[in-house]
Specification:
257 residues, alpha/beta, Glutaredoxin, 6-stranded mixed beta sheet, 9 helices, 6 strands, 42% helix
């Protein structure tokens, strides 16, 4: 790929869900001049290829946790041990994927990109997908993140089936579906021990939250500013990009480029 796209795919038409810096922001009118200045500054940062730290907090579980030092996107530096994954553990390409279970753009990626990607690359042993938490869209997101860890611990062979079912059931963001009872109902429907999953969600809540916060902070340090966000090789893919973008990056990575 050319130098401009070496570290980041960040197209102007990308769609992603980003955290709001302050819940009070919407209660005030912002002068147009400030908006324009902000757009110009954001544009400069947007097209920069340099690594930058995320301005996003690390999660509800431990807001005082510090962000790691900013670094360029690099899959070899992404922590993958202990995270849910699908595919050949020794696949030549690893894809780290940050997401939120309440994010509509993640749902789009799950439904329009993942089926082809899994069929073409995961089932053929070429790609391993590692799932990384970036849960920031409220209480239901955090609950889903806890359930995700518990499902992986109880029934790793059914993790992806559960993960897909979560997005199939997703309605409008924080509009009612997705609480603990809803999630455990999906767990049970897939033949997973919902009692055990529920028990782990409670007894290991602090441990799971710490891991979720670490995922989010790690992603932020590598340029993930919202969901979905993906790192393949040294390439950052931001937002709900089409399958062709993922395919291009994977193919080049397989070729060692």
């Amino acid at each position: 790929m050319d130098d401009q796209n070496t570290n980041e795919i960040n197209q102007s038409d990308r769609e992603m869900h980003q955290p709001v810096a302050s819940s009070r922001m919407n209660t005030y009118m912002i002068p147009l001049s400030i908006v324009v200045a902000g757009v110009l500054i954001a544009g400069a940062v947007f097209y920069s290829n340099s690594a930058r730290p995320s301005t996003v907090g690390v999660g509800q579980g431990n807001p005082s946790q510090q962000q790691p030092t900013a670094q360029a996107a690099d899959i070899s530096k992404v922590k993958t041990a202990g995270n849910p994954f699908i595919g050949n553990p020794n696949a030549p390409v690893t894809m780290a994927y940050w997401y939120d279970y309440q994010c509509p753009f993640c749902k789009r990626t799950e439904q329009t990109v993942m089926p082809s990607l899994i069929n073409d690359y995961v089932k053929t042993g070429k790609v391993k997908i590692v799932y990384k938490d970036f849960q920031f869209l409220g209480e239901d997101s955090q609950t889903a993140g806890l359930a995700e860890r518990a499902v992986w611990e109880v029934a790793p062979d059914k993790f992806y089936q559960w993960h897909s079912a979560m997005y199939e059931k997703q309605d409008n963001e924080n509009s009612g579906w997705g609480n603990r009872a809803d999630i455990l109902a999906i767990v049970k429907s897939l033949g997973i021990d919902d009692g055990k999953v529920g028990q782990l969600m409670t007894s290991k809540a602090a441990e799971y939250q710490k891991a979720m916060d670490a995922d989010k902070a790690e992603g932020g340090a590598m340029g993930i500013t919202g969901t979905p966000g993906t790192i393949i090789g040294k390439q950052l893919i931001e937002g709900a990009q089409p399958y062709a973008v993922f395919k291009q990056v994977i193919d080049l990575t397989l070729q060692g480029k």
